[in-house]
Every structure is written in structure tokens, then in C-alpha cells.
Amino acid sequence: MCRLLVEYAGVVAVGWDGSNGGVTACAEVVFHDTVRKFVAEVITSQKNKQISFVSLYSKECVCYGSAFFSSAAVDQHYFNNYLKQIKMETEKEHKVEVVAIIPARYHSNRFEGKPLALINGKPMIQHVVERAQTVSLLSRVVVATDDQRIADCVAEFGGECVITRNDHVSGSDRLAEAAELLDISEHDVVVNIQGDQPLFDAEVIEQVAGPLIHDPSLPMATLIYKIVRPEEIDDPNHVKTVFDHENNALYFSRSPIPFQRNPEEEVTPTYYKHLGFYAYRKGFLLTFVALPEGEWERFEKLEQLRVLEYGYRIKVVLTEHDSIEVDTPEDLKRVEEFIISKNR
Predict the structure, then answer these.
(1) How far apart are CA 77 and CA 261, in angstroms?
(2) What is the pLDDT of residue 129?
(3) Which of 180, 168, 185 is nearest to 103 (CA)?
(4) How far apart are CA 339 and CA 186, in angstroms?
(5) How far apart are CA 209 and CA 25, in angstroms?
(6) Which pLDDT value is given to residue 31?
(7) Helix 148-156, helix 124-132: angle, nearest 10
(8) How far does CA 222 lie from the centroid of its chain?
(9) How far apart are the first and last CA of the chain?
(10) Which of 1, 144, 196, 281 could lock 326 by a disulfide, CB 3.0 to 4.6 Å apart?
(11) What angle (nearest 5°) sits at the alpha carbon of residue 216, between those of residues 213 and 217?
């Protein structure tokens, strides 16, 4: 038994196992049917044509049949050249675009009308949009809202806005609908910028989107920040995270993780908090919002846990830029004071 894996642009991978003089073909087909076409070309004259396709984001094999044909039907050199040619054509046809979407709701339990709250005479949503527009990586910056007052405000300062349904239970659901309405390509990158972070550093957008640009197989990325204020460790409003050596998230929690079993030890854990910036492959974003609620998500009230519970990867990027979230009128005052002190 031998196994050969050939990767195509990080998007499509094809492998086959040779056994008893035969070859079983399986292909990961997500964004297009390049490999399906190739296999069809190879086995046109073969009988018993059946192929198993494996989803790029799934560990399970989805069988459409069993394609078992003679090993002579597949020539490795020809196959590799074929993929190189398709890769060049695809890269020429489509360059990955990065689109920022800013979900904005008017109604809030803690701060009604928050996106329209004035900061130094300018609506908060305008601060967020204008900061995002300074990022050269972004091809579009769009506000997604279900409230006409917010849409009118965005129109007044010349921003782009899309109206979404008012029954979404999360910002990710609103993000996914907006991505569909904007007709964003399946393999383009959608960056979720929180509408209540008017002071975010423009560099964080490039940091969170970068992994998906460089690794087309990656479905999702987010930002983390090393906690420097001890009071944030036990604060459930600051979500903590742990990750592996490849910077793939292992878990997110409102509790302090890791837990220090022996507090008398001199060495203490390093804690990282999660920042609410996400980058999604658009195709995966639609997959994500269609998944049922996970058990961890239900208890922690953190929807990113759904991604991990269903076996998908989240790449975490350590940033040096913290960001002030506006959850209350008091937070708004802090932001104003910060801007005034910076302009002195």
C-alpha cells in the first residue's frame, strides 16, 4: 500500500492508494471541480467509474461511489503537470480579495443606539469605517445593519451599507447574510470588524487576514493579545484562549485558562485574551453559520467554540495592539478621553 498526496494551490488535494495493482482516487473538491474534471479525463475509457470526494474542511469521506481502475490510467508526472497548469491559470484568473464587513445593531441591552453614539462629534460607526478604509489590503468596507437609522448615518458620511434581516441571533449570522448579498467569491476573505471598537489599529486587519491569504486551505483566523492587566484574567468579559505550537486554537473560555494547580509555584502561566477580530474564508463562513449550536458554545456563550467542537481549525495571531471595546456609556467616555490626550 502506498500513498501519494499532491496539493493544488492549497485548495484542492488529490491522493490515491495503490493496492492489488489498482488505484482508488479521492479528491477534495470545494471551490471548483478541477479535480473531478481531471479524474473524468483519466478514466473515460474505464469501467466501474465511481469516485469518493472529501470535503476540504471535513475529516470524513463523502462517498459518491468507488472508482477502481488500473494504475496505468494515472500517470504521476502528467498529473502533477496538469495541476501546475491549472494552478497558474487559476491564480491569473482570480486574486484573493479581502472584504471588511462591520455588523452594527441599534438595539442593545447595555447601550441602546451604540453605533450612533457620538465620539468627539462623530458617530462611532463612522470612526470604525474610516479606520478600516485606511487599510490598503481591503477592497471594500461595508456596514451590515438591520436598522434604517444606522444605514442613513452611513450613507450621510459616504460609506457603503447593506440591510440585513432583523432576526439574526449573532453577528456571524448577519456577517454571512451580508457576504451573500454582496456576492463575495467563495474563496475570498471576509474580515469581521466589530462596530464597537473605534480605536483599533489598522495593522490588526492585515494580521488577522494574512494567514488566510498565505494558506488557502485555512478556514478561519482571529487575534489574541497577551494579558498585562491582572484583573482581566478572572474577568469573564475578557475571553481567554490556549493554543498549540502551530498557533491553532485549542479552546476559548471566560474562565482563566490554563488553571494553575499549584499557586505557590514561582512561575505563573502566561494568559492570552481573545480580541474580537475574525477572518473567514467566505465559503467556510456559510458552513459555520449552518452548523448546529455546540455544547461548549451553549455554556460559555462563545460561538467560536462551535468551530472547534466540529473539528475545524482557527489560527490565532498574536498582536501587540489591544483595542478598547465600547460596551457602556462609561467606555465611550474613556475613548473620548484617550483621543483628546493623543491629540494634545
Answers:
(1) 56
(2) 96
(3) 168
(4) 38
(5) 33
(6) 33
(7) 60
(8) 7
(9) 71
(10) 196
(11) 140
- Could you check whether the bond before residue 269 is cis, i.e. omega within 30 degrees of 0? no
Q: Cβ of 189: how many Cβ atoms within 10 Å?
A: 29
Gap between the Cα atoms of 11 and 199, Å rounded: 35
Could you tell me the fold of the domain covering 98-343? Answer: Spore Coat Polysaccharide Biosynthesis Protein SpsA; Chain A (3.90.550)
Indicate the residue type of 319. Answer: T
For every residue of 172-219, DSSP letters joined together read: HHHHHHHHHHTT--TTSEEEE--TT-TT--THHHHHHHHHHHH-TT--
Would strands 12-19 and 220-226 be described as parallel, antiparallel, or unpaired? unpaired
Each residue's pLDDT tens digit, 189-242: 999 999 888 989 999 999 999 999 999 999 999 999 999 999 999 999 899 999
Query: Which of helix, strand or coil describes residue 110?
Result: coil
Measured CA to CA, the distance from residue 12 to residue 228 in angstroms comes to 42
Grid coordinates belonging to 213:
491569504
Determine the 3-state secondary structure of 68 from DSSP.
strand
Question: pTM for this structure?
Answer: 0.71
Helices (H), the chain: 34-42, 76-93, 124-132, 148-156, 171-181, 203-214, 282-290, 295-300, 304-309, 329-343
Q: Could you state, in order of their start, the residue ranges of all structural domains in the chain?
A: 2-93, 98-343
Beta-carbon contacts of 2 under 8 Å, excluding residues fewer than 6 positions away, are: 17, 18
pLDDT at 115 over 90: yes
Which is nearest to 155 in space by CA: 178, 129, 190, 119? Answer: 129
Which DSSP category does 300 fall into? H
Residue % of the chain over a pLDDT of 90: 56
Between 86-95, 158-167, 208-217, the lowest mean confidence (pLDDT) is in 86-95
Residue 169: DSSP 8-state: S
Decide the pairing of beta strands 220-226 and 272-281: antiparallel
